[in-house]
Design brief:
Oligomer: heterodimer
Family (chain B): Belongs to the Bcl-2 family.
Radius of gyration of chain B: 23 Å
Number of helices of chain B: 9
Helix content of chain A: 55-70%
Number of strands of chain B: 0
Structural class of chain B: mainly alpha
Largest sheet of chain B: none
Keywords (chain B): Apoptosis, Membrane, Transmembrane, Transmembrane helix
Order of helices and strands of chain B: HHHHHHHHH
Organism (chain B): Geospiza parvula
GO molecular function (chain B): BH domain binding
Distance between the termini of chain B: 73 Å
Structural class of chain A: mainly alpha
Number of strands of chain A: 0
Radius of gyration of chain A: 29 Å
GO biological process, one term (chain B): regulation of apoptotic process
């Protein structure tokens, strides 16, 4: 247009925009991943063999939880 | 002698960036192994986004480091930091580092690792220390899947033992009759 100076396209703004978009997406991804891992950790804690055995059996009877470690290496008296 | 948080962070990031660039070396520590595994899992799940980020790494490592600093500052501006965001930031930095390495800038990964380690240890050091440092990261991104598998194998063993007991009792009952 006559009388108007030509302005350059805005390359300096592009990295800033790209950074903002990346940060937004990374925030979403990070929060999703954080929540997912928290749930996994909670489930792992709930279903860990010792959790219920210790509460239900071991604490009531005053003995150690009998199922804990069953089948794990070193849990039998033959040393396996 | 215990390493400083900054040194430990720089080592972990360099290990991950080298692994990302295709190095076949074993992880330098169990923490490095956990970081590699958790980061690879996140990268796999979000591959389209991280692929689209690769062209952002220009040939100059300083530009990539400046972009990383801007992204890091904006990432925690809304709601602060958490382990998920930190992991996402590390994977993003790994994407930039791998892109720099592909373009022949062999110093890029080390440069980005140094910048990110300085940022995390100096500006986010309090948060990291309050959350247990890299040990806290390992506890958070431990292997619940593995524990669940161990637990199911425990239950499986118990069921087999119970079935064997019932079978023996049945056999004894038949023999006595």
């Amino acid at each position: 247009m006559p009388g108007r100076t030509l302005r350059k396209a805005a390359p300096p703004a592009a990295p800033a925009e790209a950074a903002a978009e990346c940060a937004l997406e990374l925030t979403r991804i990070g929060d999703r991943w954080d929540l997912r891992q928290r749930l996994l950790n909670l489930l792992a804690k709930l279903f860990r063999p010792g959790t219920w055995a210790a509460r239900g059996h071991g604490e009531r009877s005053g003995r150690g939880p009998w199922l804990c470690g069953f089948g794990r290496r070193g849990s039998t008296d033959i040393g396996r | 002698m215990p390493r400083s948080l900054k040194e430990e962070t720089a080592l972990l990031l360099e290990d991950y960036f080298q692994h990302r660039a295709g190095s076949a070396a074993l992880p330098c520590s169990p923490t490095a192994g956990t970081l590699r595994r958790a980061a690879a899992e996140l990268e796999r799940q979000e591959r389209p986004f991280f692929r689209s980020c690769a062209p952002l790494a220009r040939a100059e490592p300083r530009e990539a480091a400046a972009l990383l600093a801007r992204v890091a500052a904006q990432l925690e501006a809304d709601g602060g930091l958490n382990w998920g965001r930190l992991l996402a930031l590390v994977v993003f930095a790994g994407t930039l580092a791998a892109a720099l390495a592909e373009r022949g800038c062999s110093d890029g990964p080390r440069c980005l690792a140094a910048h990110l380690a300085a940022y995390l240890a100096e500006e986010r050091g309090e948060w990291l220390e309050a959350h247990g440092g890299w040990d806290g990261f390992c506890r958070f991104f431990g292997r619940p899947g593995l524990e669940a598998a161990e637990q199911s194998s425990t239950i499986g063993n118990a069921i087999v033992a119970a079935a064997a007991g019932i079978g023996m009792a049945g056999l004894a009952f038949l023999l006595v009759r």
